[in-house]
Amino acid sequence: MAVLFVTACQSLWQYYVSFEESNKGYGEARVMQVGLYSDHIRISVAMALSTVMAWHAGMVNGKRWHKVMVYGYILFQLAYLHILTARTGLVVLYIGMFVLALAYIAQYGKKFIPLGIGMLMLMPVLAYWFIPSFYNRVGFARYDFGYYSKQEYRQGSSDGFRYYSILSGIEAFRSEPLTGVGFKGLHEVNGQWFRTHFPEIRDEEVIQPSSAFVLHGAAAGILGLLVFLSFSLLPLTERSLWGNRYFLAIYAALSATWLFEILPENQYGIFVVGFFLSWAWWVAESSMLEKNENNN
């Protein structure tokens, strides 16, 4: 959390010193500079998941200064993630918070439903009104949607190329549903699909299927997809895991990204996914062991 806090502060400083230019960039599919290899998708996911970690730290530590520090960290990251406006990070943030809210509502009663749901709905509204980068990003997303919803090429499209990459992966899966086209072959098939549909596309705009499920199905066929599905669902067979609110928040937020993102495609993504799932697993197992000891 300390590393992520320093990284966010450095990013905010760069945003502040070039405020007008940075906000203008958000209307052109660019985002502010971030640390850790400038990977704004994975750093935003790490920051979003770290808020769950911070909430757990505040709940298990009774010292007042400690609670002030970690809850202050949560508020800071909430603000920063809306300024950064990396949509994968925001999706992870909202899903994680929603699962935690449901867990506390189930434990403490329905009287918390209006407050919890109201706060989640209010955050993006306030961000849209008061944060220029968030406002410009929403405007660009609408503009971009006007092109890829009609399957039209627009140079520099962000969501458009992700959407097209998933269509390409689905077509590759349909062509070889049993064996897949292979991970190496997927590069060729994917590139051919893009250039057939958009002859004017640049090489750097051709991306792999932006969905872990589609990627594995297209490359490895039905068997590969089943292996990935088994990996995805296996944690739910452990009672100590699906009964723990912190693991469910981390797991639900990460697994949702597999629909539209391929986080573990590089070493940094592997670390983020592995670290937070392992931490949540450790918390769940420790909680179960503590309950068993108290019962005995």
Key descriptive features of the protein:
single chain; 296 residues; mainly alpha
| Strand percent estimate | under 5%
What structural class is derived from the secondary structure elements? mainly alpha
Secondary-structure element order, N to C: HHHHHHHHHHHHH
Helix content: over 70%
Low-confidence stretches: none
What best-fitting shape do the alpha-carbon axes yield? globular
Biggest sheet architecture? none
Roughly how many Å apart are the termini? 35 Å
SS elements, strand count: 0
Number of helices: 13
Roughly how many Å is the radius of gyration? 21 Å
The pLDDT mean sits at 89
Brief characterization of the structure:
With 296 residues, this protein is an all-alpha fold.
Question: How are the elements arranged and paired?
Answer:
Elements: H1 2-17, H2 19-25, H3 40-60, H4 64-84, H5 87-108, H6 113-130, H7 132-148, H8 159-175, H9 183-197, H10 212-233, H11 239-242, H12 245-257, H13 267-295
Helix pairs in contact: 3-4, 3-5, 3-12, 3-13, 5-6, 5-12, 6-7, 7-8, 8-9, 8-10, 9-10, 12-13
How would you characterize the overall build of this protein?
The chain contains 13 helices and no strands. The protein is 75% helix and 0% strand. With 296 residues, it is mainly α. α8 packs across α10 (212-233). It is globular. It has helices at residues 2-17, 19-25, 40-60, 64-84, 87-108, 113-130, 132-148, 159-175, 183-197, 212-233, 239-242, 245-257, 267-295.
